[in-house]
Amino acid sequence: MKLDIMMKTKQIILLIASIVLTFNACNEIDEIDKVDVSNQNVRVASMLSQLDIDVNGTKQIMVVTTNPTGSEWTATSTETWCTVTKTTTTEYGKLEQALEVSATTNTGFSRTATITITAGSGSNTATNTFTVTQETALEEPTMSSDPLSVDLAKDGAPVAVNIITNWDTWEAVSSESWCELVINGNTLTVSAPENPDLDSRTATITLTAGPEGHTATATINVLQASKYYISVNGIEFVLVEAGTFLQGAQSEDPTLPNYYPDANSNQAPVHSVTISKDYFIGRYELTQEQYENIMGSNPSTFKNPNNPVEMVDFTATMDFISALNTATGETFRLPTEAEWEYAARGGNRSMGFLYSGSNTVDDVAVYGQGKTYETSEVGTKAPNELGIYDMSGNVYEWCSDKYGTYPSTPVTDPVGEGSKRILRGGSAYHSKYSEAVTYRGSNTDSFTRAYLGFRLVYVPKD
């Protein structure tokens, strides 16, 4: 008898400790058991569901079953517009506990509320939640633009962008202060001051429409070209602004300008040169691919499309320039010796390096290979202060004027006169002494070597 009483008492305790909560909605049930391992006396069986209510807030009925049957339970909503009421229903053929969910009429965007149902008491409780979403009464904002990206010229001239949105008001914000925006109706005008940087620069414009929580966004990528770089017929050029520099080198007095202990006598005297006009010089030595695109053949020994063209004498170089001018309707030429050295030194950004861009020859030059030399692809070493490559090393470069003795007095836009043509920049064949920006070489117009090429100057149309 005592044993029977103990067994019945144990069964009652276990029954009270086990509270199970389930939901039925829209005739579709997806039950997933969740076990709270922190208290094994509580188990909750729930339906993970998204309950949708129309814009008018039409009520929905959810069947609630508890175990033991008749256990007390409560329901709460996180939002005042969403009302929950305990009720009963016979919708499924028998009288059952139920929860009525309704909402006020929605005059705004879609909104959500979280419903929590709790059964049991004290440490023996079971809870579950589900989300109620009421449909929107308003059209959700949209946002896009035409075009999706903007390329600004170096002078930053305005570009108009058509903004496509269903919202009356919208905003545009640039990530960079230099990128200027003007809104007029559904047109966004993008402009900028002239780009002062050596490289192109970028900004991102963020477009926004709609209230917080319901915003539509889009982005426009802005690229502004640098005034220092242009591309003509696939050949890149760097702007060298007019200025004055000391040309040449001297090896006698380290306290005086342009001291270079290994300078040859033909690099003296050091003298002032003024370049009176801006000019565009090739960012790279002319490549074999660029040469072949115009001439239909490639005379080079070390064949590679991106290596500098070589084995071209002065006459072949001028033939190429003439053919390029005819094919493009543009004007190209070779640099004078003074233009070449000014650009190699870094123009008005010069830091006074011995080589073009560095005092360490290995940083900027392909050089010193002697009889076993071979040219490299252009641009493999570091550029100089203007972003120009290989003005020390790789291939020797033709200049337009001829070798002459330097004057001792200041000159403007000098053009050398003599019997031989000027060669500048050293090469993969030459030692480091020939890679200095002041080194001067010369030869006849018919001279060719596999270490001799050229770079162009571009003359824009007025």
Give an overview of the whole structure:
The chain has about 450 residues and is mainly beta. Helices cover about 10% and strands about 35% of the residues. The protein contains 5 helices and 30 strands. Strands 19-20-23-30-24 form a 5-stranded antiparallel β-sheet. A 4-stranded antiparallel β-sheet has the order 1-5-8-7, with no helix packed on it. Strand 7 and strand 8 (about 95-105) form a beta hairpin. The longest helix is centred in the first third of the chain and has 16 residues, at about 1-15. Mean pLDDT is about 90; it is low at about 1-45.
Count, helices = 5
Strand content: 35-45%
Distance between the termini: 118 Å
Oligomerization state? single chain
- What's the overall average pLDDT, rounded? 88
Instruction: Give the helix/strand class.
Output: mainly beta
Helix content: 10-25%
User: How would you characterize the largest beta sheet?
Assistant: 5 strands, antiparallel
Tell me the number of strands. Answer: 30
Order of the strands making up the biggest sheet: 19-20-23-30-24
General form: elongated
Radius of gyration from CA coordinates: 40 Å
Report the uncertain regions: 1-46
